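Issue: ligand-bound run for pyridoxal-5'-phosphate - logging full I/O for the record.

Environment: standard queue, default settings, no custom constraints.

Inputs:
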Amino acid sequence: MAQTEGYATWAEIDLGAIRANVRVLARGEAVVMAVVKANGYGHGAVAVARVALEAGARWLGVARWDEALELRRAGLPAPILILGDVPQAILPEAVAAEVSLTVSSAEGVRAAQRAGRQAGRDARLHLKIDTGMHRLGVRPEEAVSLAERVETEPGARLEGVFSHLACADEADPGPSLKQQAAFDDVLQALSARGLRPAYVHLANSAATLRWPGMHYDLVRPGLAVYGLQPSSSLPLGRDLTPALAWKARLSQVKRVAAGQGIGYGHTYRTRDEELIGTVTVGYGDGFRRWPMNQVLLGGRRCPVVGRVSMDQITIRLDPGQAAEPGDEVVLIGRQGEERLSAEALGLTWGTINYEVTCGIGPRVPRLHLE
Ligand SMILES: Cc1ncc(COP(=O)(O)O)c(C=O)c1O
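Outputs:
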């Protein structure tokens, strides 16, 4: 059990679940890159990365240099790929830290080669191909000339070639298969010039789980590492378990007479005499100021009534419900027979589980439990 007495709100991260999830993902032939960007999707990047590597992941994926630096400073020597764009100013530092870089333009390749020469060691580059998402990535027809530029000029080497799928979590596989065909065309063109980098990669969690034919040399799961579901059309198997629970505490319980307004703006009025609880979490922690929220108390679902404040919410208990200050309240996770998932909270807030866990604020301590 976590020592939580001193906390108003906290997140418990089950490292055993992360470990088991990564073992499932590492069953295939492909190398696993655990994606730990955005503080490990809110779960705590360093702790997740450590456990993922113990469980069989060999690479770590981040979005930004600062995130790579945090992992290096924590003493993690594993290969790291920065999946996003890297500002030129920090390229020499990134190369010196032996962090692999995504490139998607001729200028990017030139800058990385300069940084490599400056650092006295080759920049390790993964060429990102835009096969249809139209976000970051070089156009397929430019891929060969860029790859040749990396190989023929000093300062860098081509370690990988990759792309990212826009619709892997949607029921229709069509758009993903089309992207894969475009990717395969690029691989063929590269191979015709004798270019075959060590790591060819395409699959996020959804593609890793659905299509072994998209695994190539390496897979890049994020969501599945945390036991989060890629989408409502792609439920997770029973072998992947959610790792995060978000909790807070009841600070007061009292009977409020009928017809009274609750919270800012009195947006909720009691119909009868009601049992109202105050809970120590608010939008300052990332719990959104949104109607229709629910929490668990004593194994029962309780509606949030009145507005969410910065540090507190108010909930309606069943009239006969036994509860007292200090009781644990669950915002995400299990209590008794009930469960509130990050996916369900995402639905309530009109968003997705990614944004829910990434949005749990820095004020919420992450407790990593074995
Ligand atoms: C390039 C890239 N690869 C892999 C991932 C992991 O995706 P998922 O969390 O859906 O597995 C992401 C996440 O956004 C990404 O941007």
